[in-house]
Amino acid sequence: MVSTRRARILIVMAWAFIVCVVFVGYKRTQQNRDVSEFLGTMDEKTRLDPEINKDATNAGTDPGGTNHGGTGAKDLSTEPGESFNPEKELAVLLNETPILIFSKSYCPHSKAVKDLLLSEYQINPQPMVVELDAHPHGRELQDYLGTLTGRRTVPNVMVGGVSRGGGDEFRALHASGELAESMQEWGGSMFRIKKLSPKPGSGPGS
């Protein structure tokens, strides 16, 4: 009798474990699908129209011509009375631009990637920099990104809703001369990118 009862308990526990695993897997799949579907609804023609993106481009450029990109340091998705939803926040950010640079303002690796993408390449529409240490829900957003992309550290560069790496990956592609080509391949027609020519007198020995 005791053995039968234990067997039944073990069977129930096993089924409960299986249900939990299936549920967690479904939720992660649904999150990825939601992001993909959201991107699919974006009007590529509108996003690439230079007139529509002119204000964003000018806002990120100082009189000297240095491209700084937009900065997301506030909650863009939570309505009054609502709890913060990182999935919804990411969807709103992706609607702003196809390239997101998740960063922390004090992180030297983040600064290196921002300087690289925003100063040495011309990208239209511009990337948006999201400073997680300045965002009111930065910790929650970073935790969600860690679950979604497998990368919890910064910088975390998302292109078209997919994490493409951090400082090491982007510096390596830049050094090999493959960064612009790789990013264009990842993003397709969502944006345009080209490497800027070095300014006169900026090379070694100048």
From TrEMBL:
Belongs to the glutaredoxin family. Monothiol subfamily. Keywords: Membrane, Transmembrane, Transmembrane helix. SUPFAM superfamilies: Thioredoxin-like. The chain crosses the membrane at residues 7-26. One of its GO terms (biological process) is cellular response to oxidative stress. PANTHER family: GLUTAREDOXIN 2. Residues 99-162 form the Glutaredoxin domain. Residues 46-83 are annotated as: Disordered. InterPro entries: Glutaredoxin (IPR002109), Glutaredoxin_euk/vir (IPR011899), Glutaredoxin_subgr (IPR014025), Thioredoxin-like_sf (IPR036249). CDD domains: GRX_GRXh_1_2_like. The keyword Cell membrane does not apply. GO terms for cellular component: cis-Golgi network; fungal-type vacuole; Golgi lumen. It comes from Blastobotrys adeninivorans (Yeast). Pfam families: Glutaredoxin. GO terms for molecular function: glutathione-disulfide reductase (NADPH) activity. Residues 62-72 have a biased composition (Gly residues). This is ARAD1C07502p.
